[in-house]
Write a structure and sequence with these properties.
The structure is a single chain. This protein has a domain of 87 residues: 2-Layer Sandwich (formyl-coa transferase, domain 3). It has 794 residues and is of the alpha/beta class. The chain is globular and about 80 Å long. The longest helix has 23 residues.
Length: 794
């Protein structure tokens, strides 16, 4: 049964260009919002965009635009002559999504601060590279240079040690920023709007492409990774294609040894990490994979419960059996190509089916006679999610990143673990078990769980499961991210949970979904990225793809938050709960959508190209003359020339050398055709300069540029410092440590994000159980029986 979309009647004026704003408003349109896209007379540049450079027939639109603009309306306005029309649109809207870069948004009356002043009822969500304020707010940037500044290019040791580090392919940072912008727009709605949301794409890149590196470094005194190395076996070539196999835990490494017939490699007392052990045996592992077909490898890995996936691309992805059975792709309603379905699923089904994208100006005349007075939303001065209670049954990264955002914005989030099965991030800090309270020393757990309360319940026991049900009866939202069989084996299906709390919102975040042939496969970021096609575009064309090993988890988390907020709005309107299925792979398919779209629309298979990309030429990394903190000549800068004006700026910064005057370099097509020549000259120029010298020279001439930061050095960026992106958090076991916050600033706060440290194991057992009506004597018996506890069970 289909219900009215939760955002029906919510009007959003879209003043954005580019992918981030378009994806933000696509998610809002999917939820039922009336999105009015305002375009200049020449139209949004995305209408003429194709990543493969395919010809777009005159009068038609690019396929990516047709995907991102589903269910929207288009009006044309010239800011020089249509100021009154724009004022009417803004006065009648509930929210505005704004990005710089068009004639409309560059007009002095239609900047975000001006719009907010003139229309104080609005939520104005501004998406900019660095934020609206701070020392770098006016500096040029691209998605590529933001990856470099964030540390996301270095990532978690991605790449080969004998080559430059490599970006994550496919413009994923744009989509992630759009997903954050959508969620924070919805969060603003929950407290009545009337605020300016200043979202920084640098900050969303930090959260989406790195793994709490500052907290890790400051707490433990060492970086997560100090060198690039291939993941082994990672993405390997089988007899008939590429397959991804990974080991996220020691047990998975032991199982991989057994699966490949090398039980003798298992050494539970080895001083080496599982990564180091795998690298020692890489030749044998690759040889074993090469003798199997992809299906044979995956069947065996599935039987051993080792994370695995085929490496998908635009040509093969829609034919994979799992996606066929789950109907993961649909036909674009206007232009007939293939596109992913919604990034999450809901029961009751409240998401709007995609309607055809509008032609340029199709709805202009209808809105010229528009006369709407927005219905005032109840304004609350509290944080958006204050008053919501969340039972958080998540672990590792994807699930906790969703519930962490709920906690940082005011929800009472109760994180449920057990002493036998604590949150997996407690166990990955490399702290010897001989140290006191070693399980409290994880920077990753700390980074993901501030502002939450923590309880332990033995869910293998009837008493523990009964207490969980009593806790759920007090909750608005339940979130979990196990494989489907885990909760089902405990009898905690949505129907069972709904018996306890009829209007509950249950958010399930399995890797591959609740059904389909892959549903029970364990899922870590890398296999999700491979299965969705993100890995295919990451790396060099002459090597196997590299695993991004980053975006799969936080991308799932922010999409799950979007779905949760739609379910909350549905409940507010109807009193009815929901079951949300926010599979990691569905979120990943959406941010990798361009591959299947380009292939089905134009027959073009997008390929990885190292650090080059479709939006800029030249675009690459270049060595500086510096030695890094590890004693290596491994310091790089990222340069991306996205416009002819920026090319002129680059030529000026270089001193207008003779080679740069060549006529064939005047156009973007010419620069792309002669990229090798430009790279050779830029590499020579950069090799004699420091990163700071290069950045100052190029930024001074309007050229997007960045130093490739080690991610644990993020606190050295003046822009992050100036915006207060890191806050120091006190902790009863660990020293005060910087923690990343939210990737936006709001005119309505909060002024400080982190109000309490991540909970100690079972820290709030007594508080929470007393809230459920238990006496101190009863709680004492639970401790004696091992149902609850505060130390890891051995």
């Amino acid at each position: 049964m289909t219900s009215e979309p939760p955002l029906a009647g919510y009007v959003v004026v879209d003043l954005s260009t580019g992918i981030a704003g378009a994806y933000c408003t696509k998610l809002l349109a999917d939820g039922g919002a009336e999105v009015v896209k305002v375009e200049p007379p020449q139209g949004d540049p995305l209408r003429g965009w194709s990543a493969s450079g395919s010809d777009i027939v005159e009068g038609a639109d690019g396929a990516l635009f047709s995907f991102l603009a589903c269910s929207k309306r288009s009006v044309v306005a010239d800011p020089r002559t249509d100021a009154e029309f724009l004022d009417t649109l803004l006065a009648g809207a509930d929210a505005v999504v704004w990005t710089p870069g068009s004639d409309l948004t560059q007009h002095r009356d239609f900047g975000p601060a001006g719009i907010h002043r003139a229309n104080p009822h609005l939520t104005v969500t501004a998406i900019t590279p660095f934020g609206l304020e701070g020392p770098w707010c006016d500096r040029p940037a691209t998605e590529f240079t933001l990856q470099a500044w964030s540390g996301g290019i270095v990532g978690l040791g991605r790449g080969a040690p004998d080559r430059a580090p490599v970006c994550v392919g496919g413009q994923v940072g744009e989509y992630v920023a759009g997903a954050y912008a959508s969620a924070f727009t919805l969060a603003s709605r929950m407290r009545g709007g009337a605020e300016l949301i200043d979202l920084s794409m640098l900050e969303t890149s930090v959260l989406g492409l790195t793994y709490y590196p500052v907290t890790y470094f400051e707490m433990l005194g060492r970086p997560w990774r100090d060198a690039r190395r291939l993941t082994v076996p990672g993405i390997a070539r089988a007899e008939d294609g590429l397959v991804d196999i990974g080991c996220g835990t020691a047990q998975q490494w032991f199982d991989l040894c057994a699966m490949t017939g090398h039980a003798e490699w298992i050494d539970e007392n080895s001083p080496l990490t599982i990564t180091q052990q795998a690298n020692e045996h890489s030749a044998d592992l690759y040889a074993w994979v090469a003798e199997q077909t992809v299906d044979e490898v995956r069947d065996l890995a599935g039987a051993f419960r080792i994370p695995n996936a085929p490496v998908a691309n635009g040509a093969n992805i829609e034919k994979l059996d799992h996606f066929v059975e789950r109907a993961s792709f649909v036909v674009n309603p206007r232009d007939g190509f293939t596109q992913p379905t919604h990034p999450y699923r809901m029961a009751p089904d409240t998401l709007r089916p995609p309607a055809p994208a509008p032609r340029l100006g199709e709805h202009t005349e209808a809105y010229r006679s528009w006369d709407r007075t927005p219905e005032p939303l109840p304004r609350r001065d509290s944080l958006p999610f204050e008053g919501l209670r969340v039972v958080d049954m998540t672990t590792f990264w994807a699930g906790p990143s969703c519930t962490h955002l709920l906690a940082m914005l005011g929800a009472d989030v109760i994180h449920v673990e057990s002493t036998r099965h604590p949150d997996g991030t407690r166990l990955i800090a490399g702290i010897p078990a001989t140290e006191a309270q070693w399980w409290e020393r994880s920077p990753i757990f700390s980074g993901l769980n501030t502002n939450k309360r923590g309880v332990t319940l033995d869910l293998q026991s009837p008493t523990g499961r009964d207490l969980l049900r009593r806790l759920i009866a007090t909750a608005d939202i339940v979130v979990e991210n196990f494989t489907p069989r885990v909760l089902e084996s405990m009898g905690l299906t949505y129907d069972a949970v709904r018996e306890v709390r009829p209007d509950v919102i249950m958010v399930r975040m399995p890797g591959f979904g609740l059904d389909g042939p892959w549903r029970d496969n364990p899922a870590f970021a890398y296999v999700i990225e491979a299965a969705a096609g993100i890995s295919w575009l990451t790396g060099y064309p002459d090597l196997n793809p590299f695993e991004p090993y980053s975006v799969g988890d936080p991308n799932a988390g922010i999409h799950a938050l979007n779905a949760t907020l739609l379910a909350v709005e549905h409940r507010r309107r109807t009193g009815e709960g929901s079951m949300v299925e926010a599979a990691m792979v569905d979120a990943a398919l959406n941010i990798a959508a361009e591959q299947v779209i380009e292939y089905s629309a134009y027959g073009a298979l997008l390929q990885r190209s190292g650090n080059r990309g479709p939006t800029a030429a030249p675009q690459n990394l270049y060595l500086t003359d510096e030695i890094d903190e590890f004693g290596r000549r491994d310091c790089w800068v990222a340069v991306a020339v996205a416009t002819d004006t920026q090319w002129e700026g680059l030529r000026d910064a270089l001193g207008r050398p003779q080679w740069a005057q060549a006529a064939e370099l005047v156009t973007a097509a010419g620069r792309r055709a002669h990229h090798d020549l430009i790279d050779e000259h830029l590499a020579q120029w950069c090799a004699g300069r420091t990163g700071d010298e290069i950045v100052n020279a190029l930024w001074g001439h309007g050229v997007p540029v960045a130093k490739v930061m080690q991610p644990h050095r993020q606190t050295e960026l003046p822009q992050l410092t100036g915006r207060g992106f890191f806050e120091s958090v006190e902790h009863p076991v660990n020293p005060p440590t910087p923690h990343s916050t939210l990737p936006y600033r709001s005119t309505r706060g909060p002024q400080r994000v982190h109000t309490s440290p991540a909970p100690l194991l079972g820290q709030h057992n007594h508080d929470v159980l007393r809230e459920l009506g238990l006496t101190d004597e009863e709680i004492g018996r639970l401790e004696a029986d091992g149902v609850i506890g505060t130390t890891i069970a051995r």
